[in-house]
Design a protein that fits this description.
mainly alpha; 434 Repressor (Amino-terminal Domain)
């Protein structure tokens, strides 16, 4: 579980659903990323970080493309 990402999502959007709507992705995609069942490309990681007003490195592990 990516707790850093989950906490940022809850802090800014209140729920995974709220973040998924803002990001324009399915809530299941957010859930899979949070649980580590799916990786997203670096450009998408950067976009999510922008939506969460943080750095990509704050919410995603290094070495993940």
């Amino acid at each position: 579980m990516n707790l850093s990402l989950k906490l940022k999502i809850i802090e800014k959007y209140g729920s995974q659903f709220g973040f998924a709507r803002a990001a324009g992705v399915n809530e299941a995609t957010v859930s899979r990323v949070l649980r580590g069942h799916r990786e997203i490309p670096r450009d998408e990681q950067n976009r999510w970080a922008d939506l969460l007003d943080c750095k990509r490195e704050d919410i995603f592990l290094e070495g993940v493309n």
